[in-house]
Automatic annotation (TrEMBL):
Residues at the catalytic site: D210
UniProt catalytic activity: [(1->4)-alpha-D-galacturonosyl methyl ester](n) + n H2O = [(1->4)-alpha-D-galacturonosyl](n) + n methanol + n H(+)
GO molecular function, one term: pectinesterase activity
Membrane spanning stretches: none
Gene3D superfamilies in the cross-refs: Single-stranded right-handed beta-helix, Pectin lyase-like
Pathway(s) of this molecule: Glycan metabolism; pectin degradation; 2-dehydro-3-deoxy-D-gluconate from pectin: step 1/5
Leading EC class: hydrolase
The protein's Enzyme Commission number: 3.1.1.11
Name the record gives this protein: Pectinesterase
Highest taxon in the source lineage: Eukaryota
InterPro entries: Pectin_lyas_fold, Pectin_lyase_fold/virulence, Pectinesterase_Asp_AS, Pectinesterase_cat
Amino acid sequence: MTAIMLANKLFTVPQWYFLILFSFAIFAASHALPTHSLSPRANPSSTVPPTGALIVRQKNPLPGEHPTIPDAIRALRGTKGPQTIFVYPGSYNLGVYIRYGYPLTIQGYTAAPGTYAQNQVTVSVATGRAETGGDPQSSAIWVQQNDFKMSNINVVNSYGTGTNTQAVAVTAQGERHVYSMCSFSSYQDTLYVKSPSAYFIGCNIEGAVDFIFGGGTGWFEKANIVVKPPRSFATITAHKRAQASSTSKFVFNLSNVIGAPGAKPGSAFLGRPWSAYAAVTFQFCSLSDVVNPAGWAAWNPPQDTRTQSVQFYEFANKGPGSQGLRSFGKSPVQPAKIEQVLGVNYASWAL
């Protein structure tokens, strides 16, 4: 006996009443309020500029559009409120400095917003700290503002692979930054995290020397970390936390660490301490054999190790790179939680 037949038998309620309830349930489900999701498909369209967006089009820009991203940034002067910059496909060989007093979103054109692998927008430079006078100044993109989001943009600094070749792809400076499905590539000092609250989701990050560094706080979700062949050995992170009271840290969650072609097994360390209280965690990650069995490296041994007070943690990782007798890394009792790292209200700005 069906549920409707049983209901009619027991309560003598006509079938049309249940049909109305069923129809209402379908209507309510189809009009339910959306919930937060980690999927970048929840973002505005990645192929059509949202209404009111500033548009960057490298080839044959239409009236009112901009040929470069810096042109669009300059057009923000005098405006107020949240803004979006939509960038059409192209290789933009010009550094970008971003500073705006309100929330800003930069969306790169792509038909596949759920992956960095099909990004069609690339920002590239070939500038190093040696010629610009500072790490941020060498950046292909330097963000110096609060409430910033960037999706589906490739950023490359191809300065060089010799000695003293600090050359930043992205400097993230300011509170509440979100980088979704982006790719950052350099050799030394690829990603400079100065932000106290930066969230990276599904990003590809490539380099060889201290290529994720800084004194800020970053949560890296489902990142792809690619180690390029180093001159001697590679170091993925170089976290800077000078005070024991500081809460800054890097956390890599559900991420992959692999070697680029030519990178030898055991040639990379998960990190080294830029300052005495550096804090880095790799948890639930897949570590390939490019990771050295010692796991972590001192800063400049033997005279300057900076290892006595570091917080280098690994939790529930897998793969050949997760095996070995760690030098001074530890296993925490439990994994890091994102709300403890980015704040209890992180979902209001990160998701």
